[in-house]
Amino acid sequence: MIKKELICIGCPLGCSLEVLVENGSVIKISGHSCKKGEDYAVKECTNPTRIITTTLEVINGAEAMVSVKTERDIPKDKIYECIRALKGVKVEAPVEAGQVIVENILNTGVNVIATKNVARKA
Amino acid sequence: MKEYDIVIIGGGPAGLAAAISAREEEIENILILEREDKLGGILNQCIHNGFGLHIFKEELTGPEYAKRFIDKVLKLNIPYKLNTMVIDFNRDKIITAVNEEDGLLEIKAKAVVLAMGCRERPRGALNIPGSRCAGILTAGTAQKYVNIKGYLPGKKIVVLGSGDIGLIMARRMTLEGAKVVEVDELLPYSSGLKRNIVQCLNDYNIPLKLSHTVVDIKGKERVEGVTVAQVDENRNIIPGTEEFVSCDTLLLSVGLIPENELTRKANIEISGNTGGPMVDETMETEIPGVFACGNVLHVHDLVDFVTMESMEAGKNAARYVKGMYEKKGEVVELTAGEGVRYTVPVWVHTGNLGDGVDVRFRVSNVYRDKYISVYFDDVRIMHLKKRILTPGEMETIRLKPAFFKDRTDIRKITIKVEGE
Ligand SMILES: Cc1cc2nc3c(=O)[nH]c(=O)nc-3n(C[C@H](O)[C@H](O)[C@H](O)COP(=O)(O)OP(=O)(O)OC[C@H]3O[C@@H](n4cnc5c(N)ncnc54)[C@H](O)[C@@H]3O)c2cc1C
Ligand code: SF4
């Protein structure tokens, strides 16, 4: 059994939650003041995920960088791996917001897409 | 001199929303003036997600949020000029701007919307002693370097101030390979959003030291480290708590100031509490036909509210131009009472409330289990229990026309925080 301490981000109250986890499942939550905190605790302790955003270099672009994101959230423990996998990826201009830059990153089933347009260098 | 119905100064989310809503009110002759080489304002460098939860019910990144409005401006064929810096503005609504193509531009507007945003408080405003070496920059400047130029401005970083931009940059620089040693916050609480504290600091084990500040900066050409000390409840340094922290970069995230040089040129009075001009419920300043919205008016933490407020400003500017603008009723002053730092608007017209007027305000401290009360003179007409109030989160209450029914001669509306 492990005890985890979290701060709920559900509202500005920021309750300090204490969660007991056994064999990967939550057995007890305390410190929350509403259902939202409970859901948050379960999610954070069993399957925490984040959307990752970063920038990539553009080749022949009117701008140096293009901002990208994972289309959906990916497991939190894959953040660094995801950033590493994207390191060195260069994108040929023009780039359009929504364009898939890397398909199925780290086999998560999630694509990395551009979040802005970058025109080709004139 | 070229004439326009509505000129909007600033092409960030505030300016874009004002332009769109003015066009939706059928004003054709609009011009947006933007000093940068693209529309979108500060959102262009905010590549993280978390924008638009209120308006679009989804989490967009800054550029994506901006794009929705830029696309609309393009679709509506609203004219704009980029790389155009407005340098003067006066009470006759004559605007002077410069750009390469036109040189000096003089423009007369029937209505003006001020949407210049804000800028970060620089080191000069802080008074930290120590060396003037390289490696000290604001978090927003660092954000521009990393996200727009693709260049990491340091490898070992201390962040002073726990504003949202500082928190966002602590994560961003960590992901780019820098080591963020700590975030120091003078106050006993952070002004940043909870979510940013958890997802930008805790996720990466970056310590947040509350009631701590930087008292000295060491280094010759480049920062070599800072001295950090603890402060007491009166923000005085506690002797003996000084500690040297080695770093090559100090990021400042110590607040934003509305950018009101132009507003001052027109002699519009600036509120000491918000740093922005004072407006009524239509977002109109003391000069008829001059409106203000977004961060130039008061610093927002969520862009969604910038958009909503600016839609209102644009709509009212349009009505002003069309001569459909009538503010019925008496003018009543809104005041920030006990525990409240400011309110926007500062005046309301009692007969011009539509289906209600949103009053936005910030509290001056962290309060738990208190009430937000609204008084009409000495009569309490609203009493809302709040489990938590923090200066970092903007609050809103709605003044409904019903409150004013059967009440005449109201002199003053006060919003305050009360124990019971
Ligand atoms: C670094 C940073 C991070 C943020 N992160 C978040 C977040 O995570 N979530 C969220 O919801 N909100 C966030 N915000 C808040 C939100 O982005 C702002 O509230 C919003 O961008 C304000 O819009 P604005 O149009 O008032 O100002 P701005 O976006 O600053 O736009 C003002 C525009 O006016 C132009 N301008 C100024 N002066 C002149 C002049 N004299 N002549 C011509 N043009 C001029 C500027 O170039 C600029 O483009 C963040 C803000 C900052 C500063
Ligand atoms: S548990 Fe409920 S009350 Fe507490 S921070 Fe989370 S959402 Fe807010």
UniProtKB/TrEMBL annotation, chain A:
Cited Pfam families: DUF1667
InterPro entries: CPE0013-like_sf (IPR036593), DUF1667 (IPR012460)
Gene3D superfamilies tied to this protein: CPE0013-like (3.10.530.10)
The protein, known as: CxxC motif-containing protein
Source organism of this protein record: Fonticella tunisiensis
Automatic annotation (TrEMBL), chain B:
Chain segments annotated as coiled-coil in the UniProt record: none
Family matches, as InterPro entries: FAD/NAD-bd_sf (IPR036188), FAD/NAD-binding_dom (IPR023753), Metab_Enz_Cyan_OpOx_G3PDH (IPR051691)
Alphabetic keyword roster: Oxidoreductase
GO molecular function: oxidoreductase activity
FAD/NAD(P)-binding domain span: 4-304
Presence of keyword Oxidoreductase: yes
Pfam families, per database record: Pyr_redox_2
Highest taxon in the source lineage: Bacteria
PANTHER family per record: ANAEROBIC GLYCEROL-3-PHOSPHATE DEHYDROGENASE SUBUNIT B (PTHR42949:SF3)
Protein name per its UniProtKB record: Thioredoxin reductase
